[in-house]
Amino acid sequence: MPTLKILGTGSSTPTLNRSPSAISVVFPHKQILVDCGENTQIQMLKYGVKASKLDMILISHLHPDHYLGIFSLINSMNSNQRTKTLELFAPADLLDLLRLNLKVSQTELNYYIDFKALPDENEEIFYEDDWITIENMQMQHRIKPCNGFLIQEKQNRRNIYEQKLPPNTPPQTYIDLKNGLDVKDEQGNILYEFEKYTYLSKKVKIALCADTRYLPHLAEKIKDADILYHETTFEDALAEKAEKTFHSTTKQAGMLAKNGQVKKLVISHFSSRYSNHLDFLLEETKTIFENSFLAIEGEEICL
Ligand SMILES: [Zn+2]
Ligand SMILES: [Zn+2]
User: Domain 3-157+201-302 sits in which CATH superfamily?
Assistant: First the structure.
């Protein structure tokens, strides 16, 4: 089952309380980092997200609070002898910045970065493997392009009833059962029937909405998502400011969650004007959508 680890919940103006945007999305077969604001690699260290295991980075847009940390992260992975290819999906201009950064620092990477530009206008499934698809959603922000991401599992995973298996069960037994195979002894007698020791998990749908003004039409796309992770830069009273600066408010995030009938809403990307007292933002959101939560750095969300 996928898990999310929240790494950064701040917005562009720095605060001592929050790090800029970043969230880790971990599937059994793939570890993804979505946005990489300044300080992200420190947050990863702090909260146990291993850079060596990272397979893919998605960057929503090129405001510094969403990508500045990528230079130091890429460099650290190189220093740590990474050889595994890193998949990177981002606005096209990031490639120029990366190249310049590597050039001026006279760095030659030990590993390959498989860079792919995200669509400027379209919405499409830009990544697919056996287990998941990832689709971009066009946000409306001060900068173009700005993308949200819809990550969906394609098939149910087979999970094990751990408590049914004795301690010291060999790892291969787990692997076979997860692959839907009965486990037999040397004489061919069935020891563990996979049907009895496993169950199929649900297919998870994750919607991540980066900086954007309120876009009611997104409700259709994010429909029934297990989680909507949405920026909520401002309180409801600052709706006009939100509109002008292409951001969203508490109640707008709540409206989208409600209309999309998602299971859970997590709000993040809080303005620096709010110090540690974010509870009123949550209360406002809850007046529209009850199952709402504040994003808290270091917190893990199991889906
Ligand atoms: Zn931002
Ligand atoms: Zn932005």
Answer: Ribonuclease Z/Hydroxyacylglutathione hydrolase-like (3.60.15.10)
